[in-house]
Prior knowledge:
This protein is of the alpha+beta class.
Amino acid sequence: MIVSMTLELKDIPGQLVLALSPISEFHGNIMSVVHQHDEKTPRGSIPVQITFEIEHSVLNKLIDRLEKSGVKVARVGEERLRSTVSVVLIGHIVHSDMGDTIDKIDSTGFAEVVDMSLSMPAIEKTSSAYLVINAIGEKELGKALDIMREVAAKKDLLLIEPIRLNSVGS
């Protein structure tokens, strides 16, 4: 399983190693670490987001080990959406009901639009939208892109795809 975990570390040397070592000991495969040294929690600790792959059966043991070593585990969540694609839509995006387009992807239950940025130079000019779509796997991501192609064709929008494609563990 892929786990996203937020830890709170003391602002002293060696804390990041203290947090990462147990993940390695339990044969976890660290995929990303975001260390936000400039942001402090209300308790004055440093938040660190770690994403890693690990066997479900050892997750609670890992959490116990982290907490016994003084690392505060603030949040633990399973990463459900593992495949990502970025696309660009060009046309009269706002007038084509962007909410409806997003709903068609989100209502599938296997894919979601997780990020979007919109560029609208003027009301009468064409606009563009950059969308990031996450899905539970490659096959589902393909189905989400099929939906996006269908929507783009119906709404007379140009779909440029994939801008970026990324899958984890599939």
